[in-house]
Design a protein that fits this description.
globular; 5-stranded mixed β-sheet; cell outer membrane; membrane; 22-stranded antiparallel barrel; transmembrane beta strand; 728 residues; TonB-dep_rcpt-like; mainly beta; transport
């Protein structure tokens, strides 16, 4: 729960905030009077300098375990939001390949739907694949807030392990245009801006992006010809093109008696993606494609001091209409040499032209009231109502396309934020409600007979977060939460293609503990240091995971199975010398242990339960030790007045980890090796930042880099970006 600084408030808090200033002025006045009384009655008061905390600093001082990623220094780079976040402690963004590839976002051991993503505090659960963090350029965001474990009530979501909130830029009048070109025929363009008429309050804000890449980088594989694996060789990816286009525009008024902000807007986006591989690189596709488009009208309203001082209200409403199209109609089998053989069934995997029409209504509202200058109540309510209609000309009689597919979720949060001197606490409770409509097979014979069913689930979570300042720049934090995560539409309703429904799914739950501290100090007014360390504990049950034991691709489903205990530590040190030389190093260790004694699997004869051979061992295919090192140099006044340059070196490190269960032995060949990725970024600006050019080299040493299931990522790549920025 965030405590906002109010611009209008009862006189009491204004007096309280001014007490230190008044006391300082009084003391200086008394001294001046004592020393000058015998000479004259003139009183001299030294100038008083008032320093306002930045919004990022205020967020860091909240009781929650939160990191704030400032994006301004990366505006000239071609990095996307995912690439920025993977530099943060506890975060790994694991991608299946290049631009637009599927990715798995992991935070302190939690991944997938256990984490929630927000755009300006608005849930992005079903915004469509066009609006994902790997599509957003760095210069679209003002900052990114990373909440680990406990999530503020104000965000209002069923996050189990944390949340990412991307805050877009709030400049009143500006224009930011950029374009980059790079290896593998990669192109990225961005357009951001705003116009505000200070007299009338009329305002327009807009953001847009375009991404394209052939992703035809080289990979090392063992091509399969027939049933024989050929010797390893280097080949190019050949069916991996990707493009995305998206934008947001908002029109409204600001700073009116009836509203601080009132905007109507529209989000729209689309993408097209070739599918090159399956889960592993031995699965090669040459014609399979998927596409998506979304149209989302929006309404935003915000008013501080509504009716009475200290009562703040904001509301967001939207309707998301998304269309997904998946095509697999080429009856061939491909290998990495682009050789083909005929395949029965008229498809590479399963013949389909699946179309999904998703509609989701979303309403989120926050109400906050200051009982006292040290105590503030918050209430949040979020409701989403998701409906899906599907069709496939290849499977016109599929019952999944005619039966109900609906999922409604409600979250209600209540919190109290209090200050007791140097101690600040946040106590909260959250309600999670779910209503789902689906169908089940009620037949007792071989002939299927389906009936509509409805599922209702209710859960209550709670927690406490606190922070204490031992010194003005030394902060301790601790938090605990009993959290729930409700099933998502794909998990509960299936997709009618490769994933079948499971109407019996129950929410995931976890007990999360975070303990940490921050300390900042300065040496000789030139050397500035910031240090931070955190301990995490997660005890999670009823994990929702996709069952992989089915022999038929149409038989996969999500099930509740899995207890996991996570302990870990993470730390970071930052250094800055006169705002010229800066450096940071962070390291994260997470011990994620499988505590599931028995597993449930499936085969052609039905469900089976057996002892879990991985019980007591690390969960495979998840990195446990990783870190980053950054070193940068800022050179102001280069090339004359208004010129500046910036050079940065970045290193990413991942310790080797097991792809399959580690108990198979030390000689287990299924290892993802230790990896070092080096990058160099340099940019130059003239005209006080108006004209900018940047060059980048990623994976400088052309190392073999891997992520999920040993999927090889791009080798050495180069990018050049030009950017034009004006601001009133």
């Amino acid at each position: 729960m965030m405590v906002k600084k109010m611009t209008l408030y009862p006189k009491g808090i204004r007096v309280l905030l001014l007490l230190p200033l008044i006391w300082t002025m009084h003391s200086r006045l008394a001294i001046a009077q004592d020393t000058t009384r015998t000479v004259s009655q003139q009183k001299e008061i030294d100038a008083v300098h008032i320093h306002k905390k930045t919004e990022s600093r205020e967020i860091k001082e909240e009781p929650f375990n939160v990191n704030v990623v400032e994006t301004k220094q990366y505006f000239n780079s071609s990095l996307d939001i995912n690439q920025l976040l993977t530099r943060t402690t506890g975060i790994r963004v694991r991608e299946d390949g290049g631009l637009g590839s599927n990715f798995n976002f992991s935070l302190n051991g939690f991944s997938g739907k256990s984490l929630k993503f927000f755009l300006d505090g608005i849930p992005m659960d079903n915004f469509g694949s066009s609006f994902s963090l790997n599509n957003f350029p760095a210069n679209m965001a003002e900052r990114i807030e990373v909440y680990k474990g406990v999530v503020p009530v104000s965000l209002g979501a069923d996050a189990l392990g944390g949340a990412i909130n991307m805050v877009t830029r709030r400049n009143l009048n500006y224009m930011d245009v950029s374009y980059s070109v790079g290896s593998f025929n990669t192109h990225k363009a961005g357009l951001n801006g705003a116009y505000t008429n200070e007299k009338t309050g009329l305002a327009i804000r807009f953001n847009g992006f375009y991404n394209y890449s052939d992703n035809n980088y080289k990979v090392n594989v063992e091509p399969i010809r027939g049933n024989v694996k050929l010797p390893e060789q280097e080949v190019k990816r050949f069916h991996d093109g990707y493009s995305s286009l998206g934008g947001q525009i908002e029109v409204g008024v600001r700073d009116k008696p009836f509203a601080d902000q009132l905007f109507i807007g529209l989000l729209a986006g689309q993408n097209d993606k070739d599918i090159q591989t399956g889960v592993v690189m031995d699965q090669v596709f040459g014609a399979m494609t998927q596409s998506s488009n979304s149209v989302i009208p929006t309404l935003k309203y915000k008013k501080d001091n509504l009716f009475v001082d200290g009562l703040d209200f904001n509301l967001y409403a939207a309707y998301n209409s998304t269309r997904n199209h998946f095509v697999d109609t080429v009856g061939l089998t491909y290998n990495w040499l682009q050789e083909t053989t005929p395949r029965s069934g008229g498809a590479e995997r399963q013949r389909t032209q699946l179309r999904q029409r998703d509609g989701e209504s979303l309403l989120t509202a926050n109400l906050a009231y200051a009982l006292h200058h040290d105590h503030r109540l918050s209430l949040n309510y979020v409701i989403t109502d998701f409906k899906r209609k599907s069709s496939d000309v290849e499977q016109p009689n599929n019952v999944a396309y005619t039966m109900p597919q609906r999922l409604q979720k409600q979250n209600l949060g209540f919190g109290l934020d209090s200050r007791f001197g140097a101690l600040r606490t946040n106590v909260f409770a959250k309600y999670y409600g779910l209503h789902a409509e689906s169908f089940e097979n009620i037949s007792q014979t071989q002939t299927a007979e389906y009936a509509e069913i409805a599922t209702n689930q209710d859960n209550v979570g709670y927690g406490l977060a606190g922070t204490y300042f031992l010194l003005p720049r030394m902060q301790l934090k601790a938090s605990y939460e009993h959290a729930y995560r409700l099933p998502e539409p794909l998990e509960l309703l299936g997709d009618g293609l490769f994933t079948i429904r499971n109407e019996t799914l129950t929410p995931e739950k976890s007990d999360n503990i975070n303990i940490g501290g921050l300390y900042a100090f300065t040496v000789n007014q030139a050397h500035n240091f910031q240090t931070e360390a955190n301990f995490i504990y997660r005890n999670s049950t009823d994990f929702i995971r996709q069952e992989q034991g089915r022999n038929q691709p149409t038989g996969r489903k999500f099930i509740n199975v899995g207890d996991v205990r996570t302990t870990g530590i993470e730390g970071e040190i930052r250094y800055n010398w006169k705002n010229r030389l800066y450096s940071s190093v962070n390291l994260s260790y997470q011990n994620i242990i499988d505590k599931t004694e028995f597993t449930t699997g499936g085969n052609l004869s039905g469900e089976t339960t057996q002892p879990n051979l991985n019980y007591g061992y690390k969960v495979p295919n998840i990195p446990y030790l990783f870190g980053n090192f950054d070193l940068g140099l800022q050179l102001p006044k280069v090339g004359g007045k208004g010129g500046a340059a910036n050079i940065q070196y970045r290193l990413n490190f991942i310790e080797e980890y097991y792809l399959t269960p580690e108990q198979l032995g030390a000689n287990n060949p299924d290892m993802i090796p230790r990896q070092f990725a080096h990058s160099i970024l340099a940019d130059y600006s003239i005209g006080q930042g108006k004209y900018n050019i940047a060059v980048e080299c990623h994976n400088l040493t052309n190392s073999r880099l891997f992520d999920n299931y040993k999927m090889q990522k791009p080798g050495r790549s180069f990018n050049v970006k030009i950017r034009y920025f004006i601001q009133k």
